[in-house]
TrEMBL record:
GO terms for molecular function: metal ion binding; metalloendopeptidase activity. This is Oligoendopeptidase. Belongs to the peptidase M3 family. The keyword Transferase does not apply. Binds 1 zinc ion. Its cofactor is Zn(2+). It comes from Shouchella lehensis G1.
């Protein structure tokens, strides 16, 4: 098993963990100095726990078929996390009951106090067991999806490897690849539908325990979403339907014309034009790492150095293989002062972008490490994804490292800009779907699929003809792990992408100044509000009608539509 993380003590010995928590609870909080000692010691324990539990989570996702990795991960979920949640609530109570709370410097601690008051209001001890059950169901989802493979001309391929054929110039081959990919999920539909049904009921109970009628409102408070509301998300969906969908349809129509097709079918969306070869920025994992390091060095030498450190620290797990969970992520190892990057590359163009994206998170983690409190390094996804999505755009001028051929380089840049625009409706479909799920917790599985297809029709391009393949369309959500593992985590991608487009627009005109502000914003972590973080980056936390219209006008110009 991997040894990329530190284990200062064994999480099997829960009595020692509880003793550490009780030491914290015994610290007197009668002066500002004592409160600050308390906060720092609490942070130190939080760092130790994050290091170990992140390590165990990565090992489980890397080796789904390992009984030991599963045992350790489930021990964390079922035994350790309930202890952490119980004592976190007690620590909140102790901190917030200190008679010197009002004497803490507002600028340094005001936002922390606000967040802890929100957490205190939300906590219910009965919810701890519900979350254990919730985590078990999410684990079961990963066991189902991590084992998915398909036969391709006698070879067993993982689904990320199969997706490589979606670009084939051979239309029949594209259709065959997409058929195998979609049918793999449809074969698992019954257990995955049942998992979600159970999750919805558990989550509804959590909301009711805390006095909420709607799980969405519960999660907005849990995520400290002080800067926007569920109603804002619904308005954003309407703005995307009005201003983004028409741009996506222009992109699809241009692509259809380039392919010379009378109809534009689901398996045509990623196809390359006749006479073109699929974009292939690297052949091996080593080449992916070395080229990405070179790109990052050209943008900022400290960025490239970080990737080199991850390689030396054995914290890169990049290849797709059987028994490995799908998806990609970057997590912090606070004791090791490193990040770990997990992904599933299959030698595709998108894999290069995934590594750059995850390096954005790594850079964010590095910029935050000067913050003394773990609470300030635990950033909301709206700023975390701003870090990663902006990195994709900042590196565009240096993609000739991957593509020495000028025509391929231009194709790669256009594909990236197109993918940003085409993603926005997808992101809003998934967010709107989750709002509907929890506003109607007693819906049937048939109603669930019908609603997903309805949202796709409203928000996504209608250039694509799904006739005869409606089942594929309505079950696409089965592959969205966020719905199962981290509910209501998807709107952040959309909000952050709007911020990243603002930064890209500025970067094209003033690259050095934009990069400077970007790094300053990342260094704030969660010590202040999202609105202030975006302001520090020189952009607006704004997804109004005017902002969406303006950004789409900019992107249309960039894409020469």
């Amino acid at each position: 098993m991997a040894t990329f993380y530190k284990e200062p003590f064994s999480l099997e010995e829960t009595d020692k963990l509880e003793a550490r928590y009780n030491e914290l609870l015994n610290i007197p909080l009668d002066s500002v100095e004592q409160v600050e000692v308390f906060l720092q010691k609490e942070s130190d324990l939080s760092d130790e726990l994050e290091e170990m539990m992140t390590g165990h989570y990565v090992e489980f996702n890397s080796y789904n078929d390992s009984k030991e990795a599963k045992r350790v991960f489930e021990h964390d979920q079922q035994v350790v996390l309930p202890i952490v949640k119980k004592y976190s609530a007690l620590l909140d109570d102790a901190f917030l009951s200190s008679n010197v709370l009002a004497q803490l410097p507002e600028e340094q601690y005001g936002y922390l106090v606000k967040r802890r008051k929100s957490a205190q209001a939300l906590f219910q001890e009965a919810t701890i067991q519900l979350e254990v059950e919730e985590d078990q169901l999410a684990t079961t989802y990963f066991e189902h999806t991590g084992s998915m493979t398909a036969d391709w001309d006698g070879k067993e391929l993982t689904l990320p490897q199969l997706a490589a054929y979606a670009e084939s110039v051979d239309r029949d081959q594209r259709k065959r690849a997409m058929t195998k990919l979609r049918e793999a999920y449809i074969k698992k539909e019954e257990p995955l539908q049942e998992i979600l049904s159970e999750l919805i009921q558990l989550r509804q109970k959590k909301a009711e325990n805390a006095g909420f009628t709607n799980f969405a409102d519960y999660m907005f408070q849990k995520y400290d979403r002080f800067d926007y509301t569920p109603a804002d998300c619904k308005r954003l969906a309407e703005n995307v339907a009005t201003y983004v969908k028409p741009v996506v349809e222009k992109i699809h129509k241009r692509h259809q014309q380039g392919l010379g097709l009378d109809s534009y079918l689901p398996w045509d969306r990623s196809a390359i034009k006749p006479g073109e070869e699929p974009l292939k920025p690297f052949d091996t994992t080593e080449e992916l790492i070395s080229k990405t390091e070179k790109v990052l060095n050209q943008l900022d030498p400290s960025f490239g150095q970080l990737l080199s450190q991850l390689k030396e620290g054995n914290t890169l797990d990049l290849e797709s293989r059987k028994g490995k969970s799908p998806g990609g992520f970057c997590s912090s190892l606070p004791l090791s002062q490193l990040s770990v990057i997990f992904m599933n590359h299959a030698n595709q163009h998108e894999d290069m972008i995934t590594l750059i994206h995850e390096m954005g998170h790594c850079i964010h983690n590095d910029r935050k490490k000067e913050l003394s409190l773990a609470a300030y390094r635990d950033t909301p996804m709206e700023s975390s994804e701003l870090a990663s999505m902006s990195m994709e755009l900042f590196t565009l001028p240096f993609w000739d490292v991957y593509y020495e051929n000028q025509e391929e380089y231009e194709r790669a840049k256009q594909k990236q800009l197109e993918s940003i625009v085409t993603f926005l409706p997808i992101g809003m479909v998934i967010d709107s779907f989750q709002h509907w799920l929890y506003e109607h917790p007693n819906h049937s599985k048939e109603e669930r699929n019908k609603k997903y297809r309805e949202l796709l029709t409203k928000l996504q391009s209608n250039v694509v003809d799904w006739s005869g393949y409606e089942k594929w369309q309505e079950t696409q959500w089965l592959s969205v792990l966020h719905i199962f593992e981290v509910p209501f985590y998807y709107i952040e991608y959309v909000i952050a992408q709007l911020g990243a487009m603002q930064l890209y627009k500025q970067f094209k005109e003033h690259p050095e100044e934009t990069l400077k502000r970007y790094k300053a914003a990342l260094a704030l972590g969660s010590s202040t509000s999202l609105t202030d973080v975006y302001k520090a980056a020189g952009i607006a936390f704004d997804f109004s009608e005017d902002m969406i219209r303006s950004l789409m006008a900019f992107m249309e110009k960039e894409l020469k539509l």
